[in-house]
Amino acid sequence: MRPAAIQRLILTLLPALLLVAAAQAQDTKPPEFTAVHVGFAEHYKVGVWTPVEVTLRGGGAAAIVRVSASTSDSDGLNCSFDAPEPCQLLPGEETGVLLYVRFGREASSLALEVRDEHKTLATKTFNAPQSPPQERFADSLREGQRLIVSVGGLSSGLEKDVPGTKGENAQNVVATIDNLAHLPKKWQGYEGVDTVILSTSKPEVFDKILPEHACITALEQWVRMGGTLVLCAGSHAEEALHRGSPLARFVPGRFKETVTLRPTSGWETYTPKSQTPIPSPKPGEKVAMPTPRLVDVQGKVEAREADVPLVIRNPQGLGQIVFVAADLDRGPIRNWSDRPQLLRAVLNLPDNEQVGAETDSVQNYGYNDLAGQLRSALDVPRDVHLVPFFVVALLVVFYILLIGPGDYFLLRRLGIGMHWTWVTFPAIVVIFAAGAYLAANWLKGDQLRVSQLDLVDVDADGIARGASWFSVFSPRGESFDLSLRPRLPDGQPPAETSASLAWLGKAGNGFNGMYSQNAQNAAPLWSQVYSTASSLDAIRDVPIQVWASKSFVYRWLGHTADVGLDVALKDDQRQLSGTLVNRLKSGEEKASKGIALAHCFLAYEDWAYVIGELRPGESVEIGPATRRISLNTFISGGSMNFSESTAATSEKSAYDRGSRDMAYVLQAMMFYDAGGERKHTGLANDYQGFTDLSGLLKTGCAVLVGMPPQDGSCRGAELLCGPVPKTGQPDNRQPLGSALDRHTTIYRFVLPVTTPATDN
Predict the structure, then answer these.
(1) Beta 628-630 vs 308-316: how paired, if at all?
(2) Which of 238, 239, 240 lies closest to 256 in space, CA to CA?
(3) Sign of the torsion angle spanned by Cα atoms 668, 671, 672, 675
(4) Rounded-to-integer distance, Cα 73 and Cα 506, Å
(5) Euclidean distance between CA atoms 52 and 36, whole angstroms
(6) Nearest 5°: phi and psi at 351?
(7) Phi-psi map region of 226: left, alpha, beta (phi>0 left; psi -120 to 50 alpha)
(8) Which residue ranges make up each domain of the chain?
(9) 56 bridge partner residues
(10) What is the DSSP letter of 73?
(11) Phi, psi at 629, each rounded to 5°
(12) Could you give the CA distance from residue 104 to residue 120 in angstroms, rounded to a whole number?
């Protein structure tokens, strides 16, 4: 073929070849990460589960992919988190993926990865030190700040009136969400949230949500786990509260009708220190507020106008729902100058936002939250002795003197020649190293140790909730697959269990604390990346260094068919009376051994009714003859004594912020607000605030607290080591720990109390 003909052929085929090459390049174009949104309206806390929404743009071809994220934990180790479900990417189209991540430090970076069945398709790191502005997300909330999520109040101005949200030292931060669908799909995503305010003044917020939507189920589970939901309904109450509405499950009663209220004295009386009446819309006009009327009301009515309840505080599992029969973001209340005081009463915010009025400014333990003290207590296993720093410093100085001047003067005194230092110097090093190893082995042992603290809560409807804090001390450097098996007081597993397992960070700015400035840019201590299961209830390949410990927290929600108690309690002129019968048994068989509860007391309103031991089958009468102590005095005075190291005393004693007793720390958490522990301990209770059942006491419930036998037969959860089996496969996991381990279990039962208000 002539050259001219070849040239013409090439020119003819070149466009087609270029099109084929472009198409192939388009097909092989990888997906890319375009955006990431962390927390609630870019507000989040470190050390808790946080929803992270990742936006992906599809590549050249459709693909089924999985997305994972990794960030450092509180100890500086890298931990990865997988999205709960795979997602489909379409060419050139954007897709949102929701993950749940636990950030260990302020200003953490987030490494994202997308992969198919065979390989990694794309990676990207957000919030890296040199990232451009479009690849960064906001820093976490500061230490001690509360997170309040307002749903449906995009232009409500609530965030301006919530007390404690102004100024650089604001204690409360309000994150505004404009639709229910943007809330987490798992209850774990709410772990950093203190309160959710849900306003129904805009029907578009909820009208397209089905009752079985995942966000509604997650919100309900979070409330049952101990969360607080404030539901505000006024002008659109009929649309929001009818039987088929997604919000109907949160209503403490049955919606009957919407009435127009003109008197406002009920609101003004309920609002503390209110001196200004609710203003009328225009001069000369009367106030007219559309108000839903509920019947068959459940819970405690805190405010009313005639026969219309205005504020109802109702227990829901281990949490509570506060129903407000008004639109707080529109109408007369929006323009009321005392709306901040009304919100303070509804949200149950303390008047004094200062934490730790009695904090010792000299001694600094590196934490200012009870969770930090609990973490420190877990890190010290039984029979493992820590060497004080000054002893280590003295030994280092002695070692330097020994291998330097000591070796020199020894050889001079013996007169055998300085060249023998080639023998004496390594001999001193070997002897000193061997001595250090033997001393460490003698002090810290060669056995794996587990320290575990369990708290199990059960309400009268059979809703059960548990929390286990534990640390694993390893004498060798190795990795573990960890999971837990929850247990009810009768030793059986709860039904319909949902759980989460994660590392427990040290809340504080001391060494290795989550807010420590020195640790923000520290290099990881271990290059290995461990992972959390997509179900969030197991951890794989978590490394623990030699003679070191790592702490974790496990939470679960389930149900039980039998609470194990027969209860008949009533409020007789603010005096609790009735009977309690202990039917708790350690198994389902008829011959099962009964469970005795020690150190029992009944918390109701502002009082603690001291019971002592509640033996199996025993019936206890509660009445005027029962010893009754102020709950504040009972808790902070040392009468509540689940700790071996704390002597019971009737006098108010100073709180020991240096204590390493697990049960002692938990005592301060269990009724933190009601017992005045914010002032008494000088420490906050933000990170494990769900342990505080003070809010339920405001709903008219009583709480029975007791300690079962501490012989290992009544554990709130069993720690297991080994891979979690897939469905249909045998379970080869083995219990981790031994009889020498520290283990404490405490039970709490939320009990109904019949009061005159119940008849409303």
Answers:
(1) unpaired
(2) 238
(3) negative
(4) 10
(5) 7
(6) -65, -40
(7) left
(8) 31-140, 142-353, 389-438, 565-710+747-759
(9) 33, 95
(10) -
(11) -130, 145
(12) 25
Tokens 């300690």 label which residue? 707
Domain 31-140 indexed as CATH 2.60.40.770 = yes
Show the tokens assigned to 676: 């005045």
- The answer to whether 727 and 710 are in contact (CB under 8 A) is no
Angstrom CA distances, 100 to 106, 311, 333, stand at 17, 34, 37
DSSP one-letter code for 55: E
Q: How far is CA 102 from CA 38, 380, 422, 480, in A?
A: 11, 24, 53, 19
The DSSP call for residue 40 is: B
- Asked whether the beta carbons of 61 and 90 are under 8 A apart, the reply is no
Buried b / exposed e over 627-640, threshold 16 CB at 10 Å, is ebbebbbbbbbbbb
**pLDDT (0 to 100) of residue 16:** 57
pLDDT given at position 178: 87
Q: Give strand pairing partners of 87.
A: 65
Token representation of residue 126: 């957000």
Q: How many CB atoms lie within 10 A of CB 66?
A: 17
Number of residues in the chain: 760
Beta-strand ranges (E) seen in 106-171 are 110-115, 120-126, 146-151
| Residue pointed to by tokens 């939470």 | 555
Q: According to the model, what pLDDT value does residue 162 have?
A: 81
Q: Provide the CATH topology of domain 142-353.
A: Rossmann fold (3.40.50)
**Pair 721, 541: CB distance under 8 Å:** no
**H or E segment to which residue 478 belongs:** strand 478-486
User: Pairing relation of β-strands 228-232 and 319-324?
Assistant: parallel
Residue 197: its pLDDT value, please?
94
* pLDDT mean values, one per 10 residues, the chain (760 residues): 62 57 58 93 94 92 92 91 91 93 89 91 86 83 90 66 74 90 94 94 85 92 95 91 90 93 91 88 82 93 93 94 92 88 88 46 70 89 62 74 71 69 75 72 73 95 95 90 93 91 87 71 64 94 89 95 92 89 74 84 93 92 92 79 54 78 92 89 91 92 93 88 88 86 93 70
Q: Indicate the helix (H) or strand (E) that contains 542.
A: strand 538-544
Tell the residue number behind the tokens 């995503």, with chain if given. Answer: 189
Tokens representing residue 258 in the block? 């919407």
pLDDT at residue 645 in the model: 54
Are 461 and 517 in contact, with CB atoms under 8 Å apart?
A: no
Cβ-contact 269, 303 below 8 angstroms? yes
Asked whether 499 and 486 are in contact (CB, 8 A), the reply is yes
C-alpha to C-alpha distance for 230 and 226, rounded to whole angstroms: 13
